[in-house]
Amino acid sequence: MKEIILHITAGKGPQECRWVVAQLARAFAREAKDMGLGWEMLDGLAESPSSILLRIDGEAATTFAAQRIGTIQWIGNSPFRPGHKRRNWFVGVAPAPEPEALTDLREEDIDYQAMRASGPGGQHVNKTDSAVRATHRPSGLVAVAQEQRSQHANRKLARLKLAIMLEERRGQAKDDALRSQWQVHQDLERGNAVRVYAGPKFALKG
Question: What is the pLDDT of residues 67-86, one digit of tens each?
Fold first, then answer.
C-alpha cells in the first residue's frame, strides 16, 4: 500500500490563510475518503494552524497527491474581518520530506525527551508522557510532537517535523543547490493555483 504525507501550510499568510489550511485539510480528507483512500491528520489540531501534516494511504495515494501539490486558492469572504475587500486566499501543499533521505538529519544527532502532552489532541492528553521533544544538536532546531497516541509514533512525527524545519531553513537561505520543491510554501504562486475552492462549504471549482 502506498503512503504519502502532505504538508498544507499558510506560509507567511494572515489568519485567514491559517483558517483555509484547516478547512482544506478537511476537504482533502473528504476527497480521500470518496476515493477509497485512508487518511490521518498527524498534527495541526488547533483551530487555525499555520500548517497541517496529512497522511494519505492507498493505491491511488500518489495520484491524489500529484493533483494537489502546489498552490491552492480559496475564494471567499474573510471569516475574521467583516467587510475586508480581499476574497482570494492562497495556501501551499507539498510532499513532506523523508527524514531518512536527509544526510544532515542523522538519528545519532537527535536528542529525544519524553514529556507530558498538553492542549488538544485526544483523551490521552495529560494522562501519559507520550509527547516527545526532539532536539537536533547540529542545527539547534527543536520539534515537539504530541498528537499521536504513543511515544514511538510521536518520536517519528517529531523527526519528520525536524526534517521539514531543515528544508525550510534551506529554502529561507536561498541555497539553490539544496533547495527542494518544499519551497512552494515560502513563495506561494499567486494566480497559478492547481485547485480552486470557493465559499464557506469549500466547494471545488472547475
Answer: 999 999 999 999 999 889 99
pLDDT at 125: 47
Asked whether this chain's domains 3-97+181-204 and 100-172 adopt the same fold, the reply is no
CA distances to 25, 119, 125, 186, 204 from 122, in Å = 18, 9, 6, 31, 30
Residues 6+ apart with CB under 8 A from 75: 87, 88, 89, 196, 197, 198, 199, 205
Class for domain 100-172, per CATH? Answer: alpha beta
User: Is 3-97+181-204 a domain of CATH 3.40.50.300?
Assistant: no
What grid cell was written down for 107? 538519528
Burial of 42 by CB count in 10 Å (0-12 exposed, 13-18 middle, 19+ buried)?
buried
Q: What are phi and psi of 200, to 5 degrees?
A: -65, -20
Q: What pTM does this model have?
A: 0.82
For the chain, what are the domain ranges? Answer: 3-97+181-204, 100-172
Q: 139 with 110: CB under 8 angstroms?
A: no
Secondary structure class of 22 (helix, strand, coil): helix
d(CA 21, CA 180): 21
DSSP letters spanning 88-133? EEEEEEEEPP-GGG-TT--GGGEEEEEE---SSS-TTTTTS--EEE
